[in-house]
């Protein structure tokens, strides 16, 4: 059962690193109809821990979630809502906590099978609007309304958060129905250990722009970097960092990266047919493999050829013996 935290902690974390990213508690502003229909530029942080190709992969991966979230919030709040990507940035947990302030309502949660504690962060006026709208209110955004949610309001807000995060979890883990586990809600997150992190630990923060009724606001989803690596590996995102600069997480035996499944494909070498034969192939045709020529293979992990191998045929199975690495 989720617990409610409405008190300030007795002690604050020692001074964290200087904040270099935009403060998450940006003011809520009205937008014109032109801004509603026009496309907004997408911005990435220049963090060296996420390469350009991985940045683009993360952006593309979120497209399905943005569509699903827009529909979910429209149905839940009974007003037209559009969710757009605003920014993806990497920062350490000390920077996140120091730049967060007390004008946001945070919900800590976990995803089954994923490492660490995650954070859903909303400006308090947006949280209050969501609760008011779910209770039948007008849904008018009051940018100057900042207060703690009552216990009943937190229960209602948790229903909203669970619905939104279920969309995010389904997109993160396709083919399963993961249920986010709510840990607690609080405005006053003053210590990195609230996220199970040290001040220097890296996190990925996704900023999502919410547009409705000629107004806009921003919410944030923050996750441990280990979960981001898991997503990128499972979706085959390439890493264009030089090998001597890329982080080798596998050296740490406790790293959750070691348990990530990778698709393996075996491609036989030595078998050739002509282009004319390829063009004439039809369902039901047989391709005969010359066992004297098809003796070598290449083992692919995801989209990369990683090992050269030698085929060995036995009565009831064919095995591949690794000969040498290819990179």
Topology summary:
Layout: E1 3-4, E2 29-30, H1 33-37, E3 43-44, H2 52-77, E4 81-92, H3 93-100, E5 104-110, E6 118-123, H4 124-134, H5 151-172, E7 181-186, E8 202-212, E9 215-224, H6 225-234, E10 264-269, H7 275-279, E11 296-301, E12 304-313, E13 318-325
Helix pairs in contact: 2-5, 4-5
What does this molecule look like?
The protein is 27% helix and 27% strand. The protein is an alpha+beta fold and 327 residues long. It has 2 domains: 20-251, CheC-like (Chemotaxis protein chec, 3-Layer(aba) Sandwich), CATH 3.40.1550; 262-325, Surface presentation of antigens (SPOA) (Roll). Strands 1, 2, 3, 4, 5, 6, 7, 8 and 9 form a 9-stranded mixed sheet that branches. Helix 2 packs across helix 5 (151-172) and helix 4 (124-134) crosses helix 5 (151-172). The longest helix is centred in the first third of the chain and has 26 residues, at 52-77. The radius of gyration is 25 Å and the shape is elongated.
CATH superfamily of the largest domain: CheC-like
What is the residue-mean pLDDT, rounded to a whole number? Answer: 75
Number of helices: 7
Strand content: 25-35%
What class, by secondary structure content? alpha+beta
* Number of E-type strands: 13
Largest sheet report: 9 strands, mixed
Question: What is this entry, summarized?
Answer:
The chain is α+β, with helices and mostly antiparallel strands and about 325 residues long. The chain has helices at about 35, 50-75, 95-100, 125-135, 150-170, 225-235, 275-280; strands at about 5, 30, 45, 80-90, 105-110, 120-125, 180-185, 200-210, 215-225, 265-270, 295-300, 305-315, 320-325. It has two domains: about 20-250, CheC-like (Chemotaxis protein chec, 3-Layer(aba) Sandwich), CATH 3.40.1550; about 260-325, SpoA-like (Surface presentation of antigens (SPOA), Roll).
């Amino acid at each position: 059962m989720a617990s409610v935290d409405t008190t300030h902690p007795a002690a604050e974390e020692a001074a964290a690193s200087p904040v270099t990213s935009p403060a998450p508690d940006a003011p809520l502003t009205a937008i014109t109809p032109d801004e509603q229909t026009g496309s907004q530029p997408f911005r990435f942080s220049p963090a060296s821990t996420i390469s350009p190709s991985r940045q683009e992969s993360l952006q593309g991966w979120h497209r399905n979630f943005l569509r699903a979230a827009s529909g979910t919030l429209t149905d839940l709040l009974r007003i037209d809502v559009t969710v757009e990507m605003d920014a993806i940035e990497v920062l350490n947990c000390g920077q996140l906590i120091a730049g967060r302030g007390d004008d946001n309502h945070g919900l800590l949660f976990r995803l089954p099978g994923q490492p660490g504690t995650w954070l859903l962060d909303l400006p308090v006026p947006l949280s209050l609007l969501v609760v008011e709208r779910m209770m039948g209110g007008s849904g008018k955004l009051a940018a100057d309304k900042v207060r703690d949610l009552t216990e009943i309001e937190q229960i209602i807000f948790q229903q909203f958060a669970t619905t939104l995060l279920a969309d995010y979890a389904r997109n993160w883990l396709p083919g399963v129905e993961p249920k986010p586990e709510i840990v607690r809600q609080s405005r006053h997150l003053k210590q990195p250990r609230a996220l199970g992190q040290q001040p220097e630990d890296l996190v990925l923060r996704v900023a999502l722009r919410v547009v409705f009724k000629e107004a806009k606001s921003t919410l944030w989803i923050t996750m441990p970097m280990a979960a981001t690596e898991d997503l990128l590996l499972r979706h085959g995102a390439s890493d264009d960092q030089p090998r001597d600069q890329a982080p080798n997480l596998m050296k740490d035996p406790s790293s959750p990266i070691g348990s990530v499944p990778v698709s393996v494909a075996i491609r036989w070498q030595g078998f050739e047919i002509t282009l004319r034969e390829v063009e004439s192939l039809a369902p039901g045709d047989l391709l005969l493999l010359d066992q004297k020529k098809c003796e070598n293979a290449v083992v692919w992990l995801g989209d990369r050829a990683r090992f050269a191998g030698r085929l060995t045929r036995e009565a009831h199975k064919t095995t591949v013996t690794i000969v040498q690495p290819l990179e």
